[in-house]
Target: DUF7575 domain-containing protein
Amino acid sequence: MDQRKEKRTWLAVALAIPVVGLGHLYLRRWMRAAGWLLLVIGSSMFVPAEEINALNAGWEAMLSGSGSVASVPAPNFVALAPIIVVGFLSIVDAYLVARNQNAEYRAQQAALAAGEDPSAEIECPVCGRPVDPELDFCHWCTTKLEWPDQETEHADQP
Model:
């Protein structure tokens, strides 16, 4: 994730409210935005077509200004529950992604301020590929790795 600055959490949420996935696009999470959009399209298959048509008729009357909104029948929001639930979950997800992204950015900035290189990766001495520092072996070539704190622990034992 290449992030240059901290993102505004409130803006990600505000963008996710009217259009599902727009908050994720602001956060530059392209696949996540596409996934939420596909989820809304998929959940709309569980909504009766008459309810979607009633919702569209209400929007058209409101946006065109030519017809009275009161003359359009109100949609049944219980029938629209799958779309509403997925939309709400998308808003919550945009909020959580923005918070996590900002926390990672702050951690990177703190590491830079402390003089550490946050992008430095630990490489396997045998195959040269990056390894997970939480593992005791390279998951690429299965070489057993000795970490500096492990060597001092073994040296202290008789």
The chain has a mean pLDDT of 83. Residues 18 and 24 are 13 Å apart (CA to CA).
